[in-house]
Amino acid sequence: QVQLVESGGGVVQAGxxxxxxxxxxxxxxxxxxMHWFRQRPGKEREFVARITWTGETTYGDFVKxxxxxxxxxxxxxxxxxxxxxxxxxxxxxxxxxxxTWGQGTQVTVSS
Length: 111
What we know:
The protein is mainly beta. It contains no helices and eleven strands. A hairpin with a 5-residue loop joins strand 5 (46-51) and strand 6.
């Protein structure tokens, strides 16, 4: 089965950068698109970015060129490079493939 583990979260000052990783540590290799979502305090979970097997990418409207999703299918790992972070980017970031979710990684951006 697919099993996702996120890492790379932490505390960063506004304007800083973080790189999140999402590894599929399960026994099933997936060619499905990999997604990042986030849930800000008191808000519903929202779409951040998506990358397909062929490398097509899609981003949430709020990203505005600040984030970049990439993948290494040989390592069954997706990445989210986040630059120019803002306090409103503070959230738990989740990786997703179809119905499978990771446990999330906390990102806190201080002003």
